[in-house]
């Protein structure tokens, strides 16, 4: 199974993923962003883009990598990754389904004010224009397809530990 933690930058996906992994026996965290980083290292570079998710190989390689990891290890993959473009999500989720891999899709959500404060106060990355730039596309996706597509966990007033517990409790209830 895959537990996919979606949501915008600064919502707490990476922190929550590590905590979810600790709560689910035989689970691992797979950060699909590393696939994008690998593609960014291709030389000469792939066609210019502002987001590696726009490269079709990223989406298919995420599917293949997740499949191969699960085929090798079994268990559960916890995947913290923002995907805001519905056709990209469909491509990934259908690719995983073609391998018979169940995906539990969660959106870690917070209101815009909370997100802006978290980005501003981030002691690891500091304020980030890149992260701020995704707030509007996230809001549009959330109020469009994304909020209907996934199980939403509002993290505005939750600690990462509590958000992780809600993810795991939701898995148990299904």
TrEMBL record:
Tree of life domain: Bacteria
Pfam families assigned to the protein according to its UniProt record, in alphabetical order: AAA_33
InterPro entries per the UniProt record, alphabetical: P-loop_NTPase
Protein name per UniProt: Uncharacterized protein
Protein source organism: Arthrobacter alpinus
């Amino acid at each position: 199974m895959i537990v996919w933690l979606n949501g915008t930058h600064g919502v707490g996906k990476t922190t929550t993923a590590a905590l979810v992994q600790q709560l689910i026996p035989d689970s691992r965290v797979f950060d699909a962003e590393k696939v994008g980083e690998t593609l960014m290292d291709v030389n000469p570079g792939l066609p210019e883009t502002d987001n590696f998710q726009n490269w079709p190989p990223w989406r298919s390689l995420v599917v293949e990598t997740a499949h191969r990891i699960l085929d090798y290890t079994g268990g559960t993959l916890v995947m913290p990754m923002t995907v805001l473009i519905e056709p990209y999500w469909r491509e990934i989720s259908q690719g995983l389904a073609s391998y018979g891999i169940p995906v539990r899709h969660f959106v870690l959500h917070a209101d815009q004010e909370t997100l802006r404060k978290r980005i501003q106060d981030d002691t690891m990355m500091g304020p980030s224009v890149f992260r701020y730039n995704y707030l509007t596309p996230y809001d549009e996706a959330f109020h469009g397809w994304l909020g209907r597509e996934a199980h939403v966990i509002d993290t505005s007033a939750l600690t990462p530990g509590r958000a992780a517990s809600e993810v795991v409790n939701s898995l148990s209830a299904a």
